[in-house]
Amino acid sequence: MLHLRIVCPPERTEAVLGVLRAAAGATHLVLLPGAGLEPAGDVVEADVAREAADDVLAELCAMQLDHDGAITLETIDTSLSDAADRAEADAPGDGADAVVWEELIARTGEESRLTTTFQAFMTLACLLAAVGVVTDSPVTIVGAMVVGPEFGPLAAIAVGLVLRRWDLVRRAALAIGVGFPLAMLVTAGAAALGETGGLFDREVFNGAQHQVDFVYQVGPFSLIVALLAGAAGMLAMTSAKSAALVGVFISVTTVPAAGYAAVAAVLGDWGKALESSAQLAVNLLGIVVAAALVLWLRYRRNRFSSAGANGRPLAAG
């Protein structure tokens, strides 16, 4: 269940209540007249089954309440109520399969911003990957995969492409386009300092076979894994299965490839540096393509389901 709170002008309150009363899957309706201070208005609250939330939000946004008032949506962890059970039973579909498009746009929009925190995580992840490379430690490479924050912007690019939200695409592309090069530059500087300080030996690195060589060895399976990870990641983001994202982070070699490329460039192994860069590009492209395809399929399914139920297609936002 999701908790919905609406601040609306008093003259639209009855219309809002009508939408919620008519919606299959809405319950626990509460009206607080005049409780809204900024923006001013009445406060209407309700609990809505996840599978019914998107249609309710579409009708509320059509009333311009996102401009003239406020609409807030929160996840309810536990709801002990027979009314809530009936609402979930009445709502069409399954909550785990439902996509709340406004929630998805808000989530990916937030995670796609080039912020100091995003850049810090990206840089730390690349540094961890570099340590894994020079110490031949697959465990450290896996740690770098988990720390890397790159899936958020990649998912935002997919969402922006499918829903034609070019602001999301631009913002996410900026995060990726600046985040990776800057993190690689810092990593290269750290690698140069490490070699100068004797932390690792150039000849040993260039001449030996390593357990982490899979990072730069680009091939057909690089694309296959990226496609599978992108599909799984988008399914996790558009459903109630967000725990699956951890597996997505571990399965792709985006950050490790960036870290390997930086170290190899500093040590003069330009072949490995180029292969690592190719691995990075293949992973980024594969994730976006698969995520966009999964989202497009889910969008079409929801669009036609909504048209059949309400006589109107789902808006693209």
UniProtKB/TrEMBL annotation:
<feature type="transmembrane region" description="Helical">
    <location>
        <begin position="243"/>
        <end position="268"/>
    </location>
</feature>
<feature type="transmembrane region" description="Helical">
    <location>
        <begin position="141"/>
        <end position="163"/>
    </location>
</feature>
<feature type="transmembrane region" description="Helical">
    <location>
        <begin position="117"/>
        <end position="135"/>
    </location>
</feature>
<dbReference type="InterPro" id="IPR005240">
    <property type="entry name" value="DUF389"/>
</dbReference>
<dbReference type="Pfam" id="PF04087">
    <property type="entry name" value="DUF389"/>
</dbReference>
<keyword id="KW-1133">Transmembrane helix</keyword>
<feature type="transmembrane region" description="Helical">
    <location>
        <begin position="214"/>
        <end position="236"/>
    </location>
</feature>
<keyword id="KW-0812">Transmembrane</keyword>
<feature type="transmembrane region" description="Helical">
    <location>
        <begin position="280"/>
        <end position="297"/>
    </location>
</feature>
<feature type="transmembrane region" description="Helical">
    <location>
        <begin position="172"/>
        <end position="194"/>
    </location>
</feature>
<keyword id="KW-0472">Membrane</keyword>
<protein>
    <submittedName>
        <fullName>Uncharacterized hydrophobic domain-containing protein</fullName>
    </submittedName>
</protein>
